[in-house]
Amino acid sequence: MATPVVTKTAWKLQEIVAHASNVSSLVLGKASGRLLATGGDDCRVNLWSINKPNCIMSLTGHTSPVESVRLNTPEELIVAGSQSGSIRVWDLEAAKILRTLMGHKANICSLDFHPYGEFVASGSQDTNIKLWDIRRKGCVFRYRGHSQAVRCLRFSPDGKWLASAADDHTVKLWDLTAGKMMSEFPGHTGPVNVVEFHPNEYLLASGSSDRTIRFWDLEKFQVVSCIEGEPGPVRSVLFNPDGCCLYSGCQDSLRVYGWEPERCFDVVLVNWGKVADLAICNDQLIGVAFSQSNVSSYVVDLTRVTRTGTVAQDPVQDSQPLAQQLPNPSVPLRRIYERPSTTCSKPQRVKHNSESERRSPSSEDDRDERESRAEIQNTEDYTEIFQPKNSISRTPPQRSEPFPAPLEDDTTTAKEVAKPSMAMDVQFPAPNIPQQAELVDEDAMSQIRKGHDTMCVVLTSRHKNLDTVRAVWTTGDVKTSVDSAVAISDLSVVVDLLNILNQKASLWKLDLCTTVLPQVEKLLQSKYESYVQTGCTSLKLILQRFLPLITDILAAPPSVGVDISREERLHKCRLCYKQLKSISGLVKSKSGLSGRHGSAFRELHLLMASLD
């Protein structure tokens, strides 16, 4: 008899370098579960197709780090909020900026699209919530009530309410039509990071840094139940599409909860660290996490996960009747949302509270929108995903193929589902992972130790070299410090020093360029991505600050008499020009690359156009 093939319940799908600097925000497209948007400290918004390595599109225009991003339900529009308080909306199918919205005075912490109408809600560190009309480019409402930063916003499925979560430990529910707060839900003892509406019933879930998840009845405006004992702050929750359970993305695990009564159906170990967002497609849960400039995606096979109280026959029960403990999921306990068949009516307009909110679109706004660009990095993926609206089909389709599950490492061990307790206190079942053999094999240990000694030697040498450069740096002579780093013949030391110089343009002088440019040429040809990125940043800085000066001096007529300082400056300019000409060919050859490096090289190629 053939041994059954056992596949993994959860696995890592891919890891990508999403930005040139740290990733500051991300979001998954909930309709397809295949589209990912990331915001970075490099002020860009990048679009990705899950499990594909190349960036589809890069959106520019923000001048400060992107703190929050959100896709609309059809995944045709994206909104991004920045650290400076500005909001930009892009049309992904047309690949262009749609609106620039100004009005907040601090970081944009949260955003959400209205499910039907063309409205966007924004929450900020300035404690205000604003509702924007995308068509009119104006603020329709401002909601005040929170005393600290608004961390999460969600529209109700019928589009009539807006839920907000904030650092002031509260959840608030707002009536969009009346323009006022309907109810406040106290109870959390820490900042509330996330709120999520039940897809069908009048029920709201909230997750907090106090390590609890609370469920709120939106008819009676009272708490239904509270899940305690989360392993860390709750940052990401998602209801199953049919509303049978709630998924919580915990530190390195996925937990599945019911709320009447509160109980944990299942726990699945997933080594995703601090997961930032969740989506469901084809009975698979997709989770994404980010660390520095990297974004990782993970998959959990939900067909292998317990999602309802199917273990009702468990003899360990409390004294309550079974019917009360496990209500029929087909008969909802509370009202169902009535979704409109057409777009929602426009909210009542109220008196504006500031000049910035009632002003008409200005030439400054128009200029901002002209400076915002959608750079298509991967034409093939862009055409596949964002087809014109009149096309017959749209990819990724709602029923895209599920990601194939890899084989389990130990195929002899099948998943065993632990039975959750039926008691009111939440009890966690055993994690669904196969038992793995202890890693005590000598071969495995020798592989781990194999490069240890070599790495120690490399790091010791690098530390010594950095100490040498640091000793010169303390004298305040930047040029000599760079000369000493170059003389060591260790590119890693040069990169460390350039990363400091790149942050302060005022330290750069023309004589420094003559030393740095040959090193930049080496960095641009490096196999290490971080070296290439540092080289691009340094070259861009040199081109922006010194190329106009170099070309002007070289084009100037010769002076009369002897001017030693001018002759020295002319010699440096000639040397820099020669080095830049040598680098320009390399930049041109790499400008056809895809991804973030290709974008950087194309920008450099444009800056070097005057050299041709």
Instruction: Tell me the total number of β-strands.
Output: 29
> Gyration radius, to the nearest Å?
28 Å
* Structural class label: alpha+beta
Stretches where pLDDT falls below 50 for ≥5 residues? 310-331, 341-364, 389-398, 410-426, 433-440
Shape: globular
* Total of helices: 12
Largest sheet: spatial strand order: 2-3-4-5-29
Descriptive key words:
612 residues; four-stranded antiparallel beta sheet; alpha+beta; five-stranded antiparallel beta sheet; 28% strand
Task: Please give a structural write-up.
- The chain is α+β, with helices and mostly antiparallel strands and about 600 residues long.
- Helices cover about 25% and strands about 30% of the residues.
- The protein is built from 12 helices and 29 strands.
Summarize the structure.
Helix content is 26%, strand content 28%. The protein is α+β, with helices and mostly antiparallel strands. The longest helix has 27 residues.
